[in-house]
């Protein structure tokens, strides 16, 4: 429902010296486009270097591995963060990256794993809230800022990356782009093609933090207190 | 709390604030840190001037076509199942939100930091309805606990408080028993607020930039509280100033990058979230109902005027962080939730000259604000323009200035009077002069010399000197 629009916009149009509301999409002819020349000449390996350097600034551990070693590397990272309970998405990529076996063996070792399950509704949130670590894949990864971009969806609960104490992002190397520019272009293209974009697109850059008390940086406020990225060479 | 935060006179506020030595130290330190971080971030990005120019052209284009983009935004959000309410006034916006609260029989309302909801005084309205309204940004939370102490900065609202004061507030209101270490204080707030998040009926956020092409609302935070507020409650209400919009995700990206670098020197903050309507079929978290309230509240009155460029503002506070006047008098002196140079331009436009005519004078016109602005708002020129309007159109110059100008006008428009006056100036001022300066001036000079010296009139008049000079150089 849209309320009060007509009078509101008529007033805006009249302030802009128009007799009626503009209905034709205005041309956007920019004189400047600095984003086209910012980090656009970097190779995928150079982007990993940039991501690695940036992670130092955002209090995020960066671990590099390949698909074969991933299960063990992830197990080590989970152990370093104090083990379970774990919360993960319902996402075919865990299996595609060879993690099925690990996910099945964890509960036998006393590490609970909750896979997001739309059929149980709000109970997902109660379980995720009590989880120690949330683990998701990154849909797009921004090298410059050290950001993982997550698209919400049926199996991809928003809170898996937000409510647990710690957060681990699995980053296929192929998802790494120079900066937010490329992510914005991808999303904008989806919109222009008439595709439906995710109801929540999250750009997450390291653990939550605040400098509201005497400008002292405190890492870990409402969201995760710690964050780690695992970059997977998926050539 | 509405935009105006008190009823004291500007001068009384300043005098009071100038005595707060902790605040003045904190402001100076914060300014230094934020300014340096911004400059470093700009240098690292490279081509900063080009980015600023791009930011400026995006904001100008959007404002020039604001009717189109607001129409597009509302259409697209409606297609995604969201509700859009256009509010011409603060009252309309508050009434709409109140209506939702009543319909939902909501008791607990969680908020993420939003300047526009402060501006329209939404919290007070909801509290009158018997709701528990909880601010979740750490700085805002501290201020709210401290009996609604007003914010003094638009990015770090509790800047004027030290950690001991914060500890005392926590001890009194939350039975906090630990130390004043920021980590412990923040952890305590995290634990307290986590429970609130899980019980909230309605979440209310502001909007950094809405994205017209998709009907999305973009939020920028570091703490993750906006995510909590938008993911957990079943109803979400987003309140935006009508100018806070961009055409597409491509412009969103540019402005977010300018905002985070200019505000805190980060390439991106920890959480940037683009929300598009309610949760979709099969999704579990996120609201089932999504409302967007688009607020005018005086903004359209600025459109199409010589002050239109102030609406380019992206609320980064870079101008505040470089302002020498803000540095000395602090945020509360401005008596508005929008302090500093941007506040001195915007507040009188939204709130009128009656209450805020002093603010354009709270500036040295040094232009540091204009240089810092990532979207190139000519702030010092707008401040100067305000002064012209106040004097010429409104006839509201300060009385001492009026008298001085009148006296000067009489003296300077008559040749004999001017000659006589300039001849005697030196000897008339002699009783007040020491070492070529006047430190305790009479009459209209008093306000000036209370805070700094005034140079004594030269013993020799320029005209006399010039005559003599020409004679000596043989040109007379």
UniProtKB/TrEMBL annotation, chain A:
<comment type="function">
    <text>Is involved in L-lactate degradation and allows cells to grow with lactate as the sole carbon source.</text>
</comment>
<dbReference type="InterPro" id="IPR024185">
    <property type="entry name" value="FTHF_cligase-like_sf"/>
</dbReference>
<dbReference type="InterPro" id="IPR003741">
    <property type="entry name" value="LUD_dom"/>
</dbReference>
<dbReference type="Pfam" id="PF02589">
    <property type="entry name" value="LUD_dom"/>
</dbReference>
<feature type="domain" description="LUD">
    <location>
        <begin position="52"/>
        <end position="232"/>
    </location>
</feature>
<protein>
    <recommendedName>
        <fullName>Lactate utilization protein C</fullName>
    </recommendedName>
</protein>
<comment type="similarity">
    <text>Belongs to the LutC/YkgG family.</text>
</comment>
<dbReference type="InterPro" id="IPR022823">
    <property type="entry name" value="LutC"/>
</dbReference>
<dbReference type="GO" id="GO:0006089">
    <property type="term" value="P:lactate metabolic process"/>
</dbReference>
<dbReference type="InterPro" id="IPR037171">
    <property type="entry name" value="NagB/RpiA_transferase-like"/>
</dbReference>
UniProtKB/TrEMBL annotation, chain B:
<keyword id="KW-0249">Electron transport</keyword>
<feature type="domain" description="LUD">
    <location>
        <begin position="70"/>
        <end position="295"/>
    </location>
</feature>
<feature type="binding site">
    <location>
        <position position="369"/>
    </location>
    <ligand>
        <name>[4Fe-4S] cluster 2</name>
    </ligand>
</feature>
<dbReference type="GO" id="GO:0046872">
    <property type="term" value="F:metal ion binding"/>
</dbReference>
<keyword id="KW-0813">Transport</keyword>
<comment type="similarity">
    <text>Belongs to the LutB/YkgF family.</text>
</comment>
<protein>
    <recommendedName>
        <fullName>Lactate utilization protein B</fullName>
    </recommendedName>
</protein>
<feature type="binding site">
    <location>
        <position position="366"/>
    </location>
    <ligand>
        <name>[4Fe-4S] cluster 2</name>
    </ligand>
</feature>
<keyword id="KW-0411">Iron-sulfur</keyword>
<feature type="binding site">
    <location>
        <position position="319"/>
    </location>
    <ligand>
        <name>[4Fe-4S] cluster 1</name>
    </ligand>
</feature>
<keyword id="KW-0408">Iron</keyword>
<dbReference type="InterPro" id="IPR017900">
    <property type="entry name" value="4Fe4S_Fe_S_CS"/>
</dbReference>
<feature type="binding site">
    <location>
        <position position="313"/>
    </location>
    <ligand>
        <name>[4Fe-4S] cluster 1</name>
    </ligand>
</feature>
<dbReference type="InterPro" id="IPR037171">
    <property type="entry name" value="NagB/RpiA_transferase-like"/>
</dbReference>
<keyword id="KW-0004">4Fe-4S</keyword>
<dbReference type="InterPro" id="IPR024569">
    <property type="entry name" value="LutB_C"/>
</dbReference>
<feature type="domain" description="4Fe-4S ferredoxin-type">
    <location>
        <begin position="310"/>
        <end position="377"/>
    </location>
</feature>
<dbReference type="InterPro" id="IPR004452">
    <property type="entry name" value="LutB/LldF"/>
</dbReference>
<feature type="binding site">
    <location>
        <position position="323"/>
    </location>
    <ligand>
        <name>[4Fe-4S] cluster 2</name>
    </ligand>
</feature>
<dbReference type="InterPro" id="IPR003741">
    <property type="entry name" value="LUD_dom"/>
</dbReference>
<dbReference type="Pfam" id="PF11870">
    <property type="entry name" value="LutB_C"/>
</dbReference>
<feature type="binding site">
    <location>
        <position position="316"/>
    </location>
    <ligand>
        <name>[4Fe-4S] cluster 1</name>
    </ligand>
</feature>
